Amino acid sequence: MRTALVIGTGLIGTSAALALAGRGVRVHLVDHDAAQARTAAALGAGTDEAPEGPVDLAVVAVPPAHTAAALAEAMKAGRARGYLDVASVKGGPRRELERLGVDLSAYIGTHPMSGKETSGPLAATADLFEGRPWVLTPTPGTDTEVLNLALELVALCRAVPVVMDADAHDRAVALVSHTPQLVSSLVAARLEAADDTAVRLCGQGIRDVTRIAASDPRMWVDILAANPGPVADVLAEVAADLDETVRALRALHTGDATERRGAARGVEGVLRRGNAGRARVPGKHGAAPAAYETVAVLISDQPGELARIFADAGRIGVNIEDVRIEHATGQQAGVVQLMVEPAAAQVLGAALRERGWALRP
């Protein structure tokens, strides 16, 4: 691939353009908002000048509701040898293209499973897709050259290709992406009218659950409107569990001894099913999640403190597998939770104490 056209310079389009441009591909940028395309170009994602002729690959990175129309327009104009989109739903755009009578041999639907709660070109990074799954949904009619171009794009973005059926993909993302967004927003909505005293008690748990609730509502309305059936199916199952859990909690509050014992078993069952489901979430490098131990270190909110603690861990020879930061309410301090292999936890804790760090039990 030597040339590419990115249509839509939001977070995903600009991030893909940055990755391609950084690896020597000449990238042309276009957006319905010319200022946004200029911003992406200024960030080094390519040029907002139109290509002189057809490019090797056109990447359509517009909202799902506009994906099929943008693809059809580009394909009818002959703007590239191959075309793909990065919309978060796949079945709908493909069927719409079929209704529009477009030759689908030059097209492949794709979806990079990566993003942020922030949007726009200024949020883009060239490493956004590194190590992340990138779904490809070829059909029997997809041209081999187009599939190879898509695989080259995934490789240049350092993502991991995953081949799926389009409708199977849509059911999968309803479960692992679209429903979690709604559930996160529903929990966060409880905070809107909450008493200030309650909100001041927010800790890492509520921050984790509500992080993606900061996402752009307009963007998510577009995504959910393109995949409503599968999302509704998953939400219905969640609602059934919620109804049962509410009844169990009511029984714990007002029931007799026998009812309370049954209710407790019901609540425990939901929690254990949650344990089992969480254990299936892939960990590092896509493998089964490892059982790390946590070393909690008190840290001041001063420049360079995080770098110093990571440097100390490196000198000790301990690899930090994951990290969380919990800020202390109303204080210029917090707790850094360092996740390490169980065998390294005691060594790391002792060495950090020797270097003057205060550890929290």
From TrEMBL:
One Pfam entry name: PDH_N
Superkingdom to which the source organism belongs: Bacteria
EC numbers on record: 1.3.1.12
Keyword Lyase in annotation: no
Domain ACT intervals: 294-361
All copies of domain Prephenate/arogenate dehydrogenase, residue ranges: 2-282
Transmembrane stretches, start-end: none
InterPro entries, per database record: 6-PGluconate_DH-like_C_sf (IPR008927), ACT-like_dom_sf (IPR045865), ACT_dom (IPR002912), NAD(P)-bd_dom_sf (IPR036291), PDH_C (IPR046825), PDH_N (IPR046826), Preph/Arog_dehydrog (IPR050812), Prephen_DH (IPR003099)
SUPFAM superfamilies in alphabetical order: 6-phosphogluconate dehydrogenase C-terminal domain-like (SSF48179), ACT-like (SSF55021), NAD(P)-binding Rossmann-fold domains (SSF51735)
Pathway participation: Amino-acid biosynthesis; L-tyrosine biosynthesis; (4-hydroxyphenyl)pyruvate from prephenate (NAD(+) route): step 1/1
Reaction(s) catalysed by this chain's protein: prephenate + NAD(+) = 3-(4-hydroxyphenyl)pyruvate + CO2 + NADH
UniProtKB keywords: Amino-acid biosynthesis, Aromatic amino acid biosynthesis, NAD, Oxidoreductase, Tyrosine biosynthesis
Gene3D superfamilies according to UniProt: 6-phosphogluconate dehydrogenase C-terminal like domain, NAD(P)-binding Rossmann-like Domain
Keyword NAD appears in the UniProt entry: yes
Family to which this protein belongs: Belongs to the prephenate/arogenate dehydrogenase family.
Protein name stated in the entry: Prephenate dehydrogenase
Species per Swiss-Prot/TrEMBL record: Streptomyces sanyensis
